[in-house]
Amino acid sequence: MSTARDLTELEGCVLGLFWERGPCTPYAIRKEFLASLSPYWSGSAGAIYPLIERLDRRRLIRAASGAQGPRRSKHYSLTPAGRQALRRWLGPPLTETTLGIPPDPLRTRMQFLGALPHPRKMSLLREAEAGLRMHVSRVEENCERSRRAGETYEWLIARGAARMLRARLEWIREVIEELGGS
Amino acid sequence: MSTARDLTELEGCVLGLFWERGPCTPYAIRKEFLASLSPYWSGSAGAIYPLIERLDRRRLIRAASGAQGPRRSKHYSLTPAGRQALRRWLGPPLTETTLGIPPDPLRTRMQFLGALPHPRKMSLLREAEAGLRMHVSRVEENCERSRRAGETYEWLIARGAARMLRARLEWIREVIEELGGS
DNA sequence: CCGCTCATGTAACTGGTTACATGATTTA
DNA sequence: TAAATCATGTAACCAGTTACATGAGCGG
Questions:
Q1: Is the Cβ–Cβ distance between A161 and A139 less than 8 Å?
Q2: pLDDT tens sequence across B31-51
């Protein structure tokens, strides 16, 4: 039963954050996204606040009854239904969208590389390599930091991101090698 | 000059396809997306047709003047402005969004794995491993096929996807190893 | 007390999804 | 010729973006 509309990535993620940190304010959630290293999570106010309201209306979170911190900020926390929705969102089962080839705007662009004159093509590739190298090192620092701090999950996540970035970097090098003399 | 609104990923990609294949019908473009191995590209009619119209209105493509194939299908082709827009979209420069940590719904979920009871957690991980393995082998076949056919770009793209999937697979194994005992 | 940033919101827009509709062509 | 599927669309909806607004609290 319960065809209660599936959660979006952002919704699932917000529920997850409420689970992770217990009662907290919308802004605390929002900051999490603002601080994210991935540009995918914008944390724009126009996304978060209406979303919180939605979750509230669906009784997946509720304004924490107990007295809260300093002043006038509404704290929300996960309801049992919310916890269940979170688990459902996590899976199993995992969907095709979760497991399949993830989108990658860089890869997409590479497909049409031939539309650029050779010099520009090469400078694009060099820029990509440099940028990726920078991102890799930044994420790997992060990785190291959370490992030292013993935050297992954070560490695993950062590691996943690092592996992905490194795969992209090695791939770009392969592309350069392949197209270098064309 | 020309603050002509940036192209979306889908728009850029469609221009790229017109570049790749020359004059063709909206449906031919659409089929390309429908055939994609990545679930990210849905190829829904409601996305493609209005988009084609948009590109037409912006003079980035135009209905091919010459006589076309069999009957009553409008062929479009890239205009010079369209070609330029494509190159601009490709870069350089590359944006943060293009180079930064790409979104990965699987990685996102892993962050909240702790919300699942241990057995369910493990079965989720096993499902992920199995699914990824399947995807990897499927994409690697593709890779091999295009290598044999000598389609350099297709091959590079497939290779990028394969590397990404393999990175995810290895990562999931690492997660399993790390969490296996608890 | 003045101004800055915090925290919460909202209105307008936009690109993409879902689901349906419709003629044209092919196939059984 | 009847049924299927090709090819093109469209209407309603929806989540997220951009840009603006606002009051509360705090630091000079």
A1: yes
A2: 999 999 999 999 999 999 999
